[in-house]
């Protein structure tokens, strides 16, 4: 019976940990805006693409000065990622 309690506690901790790994849309936007490079922004979008909603993608588009609202949610995410990939090709680490 003691083993059952330990297993239950372990399972509860695992569920709690996985639930805490999911970020709110506000936290995703905060991380996106804090990212310094386009590559970092792409990684954030890729990691959390299943959590992105219409409002969040609209805010992301606005932060990048992109036109928004055209197409499905998935098309909009792909367009933002396309623009970020293009931008990342021209980013440089050298000082000006």
What does this molecule look like?
The chain is mostly helical and 96 residues long. It has one domain. Helix content is 71%, strand content 0%. It contains 5 helices and no strands. It starts with a helix and ends in a 6-residue tail after the last helix.
Major sheet size, sense and barrel closure? none
Helicity range: over 70%
Number of domains: 1
Class by helix and strand content? mainly alpha
Strand count: 0
User: What general form does the structure show?
Assistant: globular
**For the residues shown, what is the average pLDDT?**
83
N/C terminus separation: 67 Å
**What share of the residues does DSSP label as strand, in percent?**
under 5%
The sequence of SSEs as H and E is: HHHHH
Which value, in Å, is the CA radius of gyration?
A: 18 Å
Number of helices: 5
Low-confidence blocks of residues: 14-20
Topology summary:
Blueprint: H1 2-21, H2 25-34, H3 38-47, H4 54-63, H5 73-90
Helix pairs in contact: 2-3, 2-4, 3-5, 4-5
């Amino acid at each position: 019976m003691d083993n059952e309690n330990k297993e239950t506690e372990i399972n509860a901790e695992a569920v709690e940990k996985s639930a805490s790994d999911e970020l709110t849309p506000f936290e995703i936007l905060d991380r996106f805006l804090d990212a310094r490079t386009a590559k970092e922004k792409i990684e954030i979008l890729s990691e959390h693409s299943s959590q992105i909603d219409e409002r969040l993608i609209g805010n992301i588009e606005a932060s990048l000065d992109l036109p928004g609202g055209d197409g499905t949610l998935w098309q909009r995410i792909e367009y933002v990622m396309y623009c970020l990939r293009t931008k990342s090709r021209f980013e440089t680490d050298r000082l000006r």
